[in-house]
Amino acid sequence: MEQTMIDRTKEIEADLVITHCGQILTMAGATERPKTGAQMDDLGLIPGGALAAREGRIVWVGKAEGLESSVSLVEGARVIDAQGRVALPGFVDSHTHAVFAGSREGELAARIRGKTYLEILQEGGGILSTVRATRGRSPEELAEVSRGYLDNMLRHGTTTVEVKSGYGLDLESELAILQAVEILNRTHPLDLIPTFLGAHALAPEYAGDQAGYVEAVIRMLHQVKGFARYCDVFCEEGVFSVEESRRILLEARRQGFGIKLHADELRPTGGAELAAELGATSADHLDHASPQGMRALAEKGVVGVLLPGVSFFLMAPTYAPARQMLEAGMAIALATDFNPGSCPCENMALILTLACLQLKMTIEQALNAATINGAHALGLALEVGSLEVGKAADVVLFDLPSYQAIPYRFGVNHVWRVIKKGKEV
Ligand code: NIG
Ligand code: FE
Fold this sequence. Notes:
The protein is 36% helix and 24% strand. It contains 17 helices and 16 strands. Strands 1, 2, 3, 4, 5, 14, 15 and 16 form an eight-stranded mixed beta sheet that branches. Helix 8 runs parallel beside helix 9 and helix 14 runs antiparallel to helix 15. The N terminus is likely disordered. N-(iminomethyl)-L-glutamic acid (NIG) binds next to helix 5.
């Protein structure tokens, strides 16, 4: 208070300042629409940058030299001297299945010996073994198990995460998962966006009655509505067909859910086309999306969420055709797909490395995809994903000399500080 009375030129007051960043990647300029094409090369980079925040929101970003003349500190303000480190928006991990019980390292051993992911699922393992471990757990128990995974995410620089249900496959257990997400949203610094994925696998009670389970999922919709922002379906040959997915998602859309889709992950199924037809917020995986599907997604502005950690961990012979997608004008986001079967990894920086080396994305494209476009994949781009005045002060600082070192120094966590809503966590 006193400071502003003394110096009226400093209209901006801050309770957090991060200064002397070697580089600040603001990712600015795409809050309305996701980045596509040449915009994906623009990091909004400020060399020698600084950032100021007040009550969890960014109030100023610019060159460190300009900080002192523009911003005054309130009493007790926190000042972080980054000493040349790299600052960027906290990662937005827009696709995970982070609430489950149990663990499936035995499947890794089986897959190394030659079993495929779908064979394991069809023999009653895979997703169904996690369902057995998850059912019967209370929301509180599930939240306690998942808290450790969220801690890992935060430590690796993720500040917003989407979490899908889908390891319950009946109303009570699906609700328990979504309630665990709600508990974690209240008690963990990460922000969680809940998605209902009742159509993740055929519930064991419905063996031989796929149509019956589709109806059961549709009946669950209005009961989970208060707990989930999005509805998703695992659309894949041998899991849920395009027709079944359409039925579920049309009803979800009618009830006000946002729409997402696991599309063309293991085989070309027509999932990308369906996501475009329904005007989904995102179409995810897309490893085998058709050229028409990619064009349709680009035309409809559906974000393609690519998950190269899955291709890596399932030893897929090919990866998603990211370059073709970018050329088609699609908006691309990157996420972990953190789950116990196809990608038990919370680390977004490692996903950046895979995106660069296997999807052949440039480092700049990958960084935009992991931040601002991830925010678009969750409908949150006015709030997170870039460092711009008015948005949440969600910042990650890497103990590295340049942003190019983030995918380069792979396999080790180089995160130095994580700021969530203006507070160091
Ligand atoms: O996104 N594809 C379907 N679901 C998850 C895997 C879930 C699991 O194996 O537990 C995925 O890859
Ligand atoms: Fe998934």
